[in-house]
Structures are given as structure tokens and as C-alpha cells.
Amino acid sequence: MKPVVLLFMAACHLSFGQQQSDGVAVRVLSFNILHGATTKGDFDLDAIAKVINGARPDFVALQEVDYKTRRAKGYDLATELGWRTKLAPLFARAMEYDGGEYGEAVLSRYTFLATRNVPLPFSGKNEPRAALEITTVLPSGDTIAFIGTHLDHLQDDTDRVKQATEINNVFSYNTYPTLLAGDLNDVPGSTTLSILEQMWTPSYRKGGIQFTFPSDRPAKKIDYVMYYPKDKWKVLKTEVIADPIASDHCAYLVTLQLLR
Length: 260
Description:
Blueprint: E1 4-6, E2 19-20, E3 23-32, H1 45-55, E4 59-67, H2 77-85, E5 88-97, E6 100-108, E7 112-120, E8 129-137, E9 143-150, H3 158-171, E10 178-183, H4 191-196, E11 201-202, E12 223-228, E13 233-241, E14 251-259
Parallel strand pairs: 3-4, 9-10
Antiparallel strand pairs: 1-5, 2-3, 3-14, 4-6, 5-6, 7-8, 8-9, 10-12, 11-12, 13-14
Helix pairs in contact: 1-2
């Protein structure tokens, strides 16, 4: 298991989610942040934080996250965004890169009970990938798991298919209701999505797919939020947040209800 960088935020930074009569509403954001560079190349973390804060999420899955790399000016991006959003940050390394590390991150409104960084299979020519899981307790007292991931980006889907299969294999043993979010680098109906949907229920409507990439003129959907098991969650709302400066990806916001 690969190491994670963990930072707990002060309790005063945490607030409670919206209670429902028959469950609790949870706001989940998936956002590929282009290693903090922005599409202008000006490394404006405040622009990224503005998108996150505007969405008012309980959980955020961040992709393309640098940890003290030269291109990120030595910053720990997860921690920097944690302070800017008043959410608890967690970084998970997928690989060493440019004098630092590169991988996934999660931001959470609630304290981490447990975490794990699951390495995903990859061939030697491709980048390593990972799935970062946290376990936490909602204000309702319910324990859930939240997973952020970023699958292989190459046109050849060999690694992506293996990574999707591994995600199903590893997390099928979860005993808590679980959410999966991230840049899956594939479209609805692909082999990758078909494999994941054998276990996970997608939040998108197959008759009304919302495109998420590129942010200046979205033309395809590659960013997702999914849930497991099917009978424990209900999708209340989905929203694509397009900011063509903050990142080349749109942020994807889903509000779900954990059913009692």
C-alpha cells in the first residue's frame, strides 16, 4: 500500500450536511485540476478554490494533484486547497514526479476515520494510477466510504479496463454505502464504464448525458460520480460547472441522498 499525506483540519472548519426526513443529502464534486496550472498557465489556486467553494461540496475528488513538484512551485496542492476551502485534505501518491509526487486527493467536510491508497494495475509504458478511499461519519450518524480516482488516459483502453476491474474487485468488499468519483477518461457505453456499472450505479441519465470535457466547449463526458449499493442512494441533482480558466475539465457536482 502506498503512503498518503494526511492533514486534519480544525473542528471549527467542519459543518453539517443537509438533513432529510428519510435520509441525509450529500454533495459530491469531481474535479480534475490540471495540476494547479489553470488553462492560462498562471498557477492560480484561488481560481480552483473558487469553483470548489461555489459548489459547497461535502466531498471532493481531485485529479492531477501535485505534491511539492517543481512545476507546482513546491506546493502541496491538496493542503493549499484544503486551507482555501476549509475542507480536510488528503493526498495519495500514484507516482514520483518532477522532484515530488503526483496523484489523487480528497477534500472532506468530515473527519477521516480510515484511509487507504489502492494502487491500480498499469503497464510499464503508462503512468501509475491509484484509487484513494476515505471512511467517515455523516452528521446523521451514518458511516460511508468515499473514493476518488483517475484512470489511464491513453486511447488504448487496456490499462483502463484493468483498472476498472480492480476497482470493482477491491471495493466490492465494502460494507458501508460507498461513493466513487473521478476522471475515468472514458465515455458512457465504453468497455471501461460497462465494467464499472456491473457494480456501481452511475449518477448520469443515459438519455441526457452532461458533457464535462473540455471546459471551454464540453463535447464528451469523462468525469463521473457513482454509488454502491444501488438501494442505499438516490440522485437528487447533477450539475456541470464550466470554468474555462480554472481547469481544462468542468467540475461535476452531484447531490445524492443516503436512504434509510
